[in-house]
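Lab notebook: predicted structure, single chain.

Context: the supervisor wants predicted structures on file for every construct in the current expression panel, including those that have not yet been purified. This is the next one on the list. No modifications to the sequence; it matches the entry in the shared construct table.
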Amino acid sequence: MAQDHDADVIVIGSGTVGSNAAYELAQQGKSVIILEAGVRIPRWKLIQSFRNSPRRTDYNGPYPDEPWAHTSASHAYVQNDGDFAMVANFLKLVGGSTWHWGGATWRFIPDDFKMKSTYGVGRDWPISYDDLEPWYDRAEYEIGVAGNLHEDQSGTRPGETWPPRSRDFPMPAQKNSYMLDTFAKAIGPMGYEVVAEPSAMMSGSYRGRPGCVGNNNCAPVCPIGANYSGVFHADLAVEAGCQLITGATVDRIEKGPDGRIASVRYKSSDGTEGRLSAKAFVLAAHGYESPKLMIMSEVGNSSDMVGRNLMPHLGLGVDFFAAEAVWPGRGPIQQGAIFSHRDGASRARHSGIKHAVNNFVPNEAMTKRLLSQGVLGSELDRRIRHDSARYMSLYSMFETLPDPANRVQPGPLKDALGNPNIRLTYAADGYCRGAIDPCIADFTAFVQAMDGETLNMSRELANHDHIMGTTIMGNDPTDSVVDGDCRSWDHDNLFVVGTGNLPSSSVVNPTLTAVALGIRAADTIAKEV
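Prediction complete. Output recorded below exactly as produced.
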């Protein structure tokens, strides 16, 4: 390391993507400093916090929400100015938001990378699926992903392994729950197929993590650590020689006279300030926080695309009683998916669709429902058991298109360190709304297949988190933020990584894709510093 730099590389953010990038750089002998706004909390304390929390259904409930490191649950920290109220559950602590996720680790399919050229909508990526496939493989083996090799995840290539893979998953998929097997058997004659969800909830021990034993508490916190969290790679990075500084909120990325990034400035929770320099910088804060920091710092935004092109996953849901008991709440909170509308010619007209079955314990929700109906005493006990055993809940995810008018910006409110909150402007597009009718038709068929009684089937679009597009990659520096290597067009030693890079949203969870891009970017950096 040169004496005029504090490290070869500074990584901002210790979530899954930042920690994987830091670990890759450390493995290649680079000196790395990781800056994290939150703190490091052991799992047992989070479990204790969950058990003591009155907010059992709030995934952010067990986690710290500090005046200098807010979660998305903080009052007014996420401010909506648009037609659609956007939310994304995020945390600020070592390991980031994958402390409370469902573990879904899907790959995008090849057509997701070429939406414009294939379907005439959205954008094409500056790289192809084949370019990213080796990094998908690397990411899966770093995280530990359990899945089925011989399945079509596109809905258009029955009998094939799609998307194509260079090798099998690290672990086989978990056994299906009774509910999922029962549902799959019922809808099969209608032409629907349930495919296994690739999952970071391991089916056996992997890299020191135990296999899933079905606690069904993947969110807000896995009690045994079977579900992957970014904290695993944060710890691995530290073991490999990275320096982790917690309670360090970066509020300025500073340019040198040559236009390259020279240093970052941060404040600790007690208000003291620090400044660190490096040869290269990796910004891995969050799909909201990374663009906010870039705008605050006036870096990387010659295209005026920083914070724009906000793409969430939206969707619908259906709740119903099956005619027979299906026993939800046994095993992981999510397992399978239906992709009848994921790909194909209809994507030129409207969003693709992913359907999935929720597998959470419904007893609390059923109890509240029955109490609201005046059911009490022994009948209440009987009905809780009866209704909870037959309850089913499905949800869909729709893709959205990049639109510069949909954006994240620094807001007018300030936190304890004087940094702005997050201001969102979002309106759901017609492309997304076009999937409502085919989705409702599928939901109706699903209820019919289970001889069910519908409780709720709303046409009102709902949030499904997953923030993409806000630091969008592309081939043209005039309409994108980073290139195909996640390198800033404006500063060749600044790499911005995370789900915000994605030029298309697909209908699947973006975490694995972001990790693959992050490891790929780290490998590029390692060749240059």
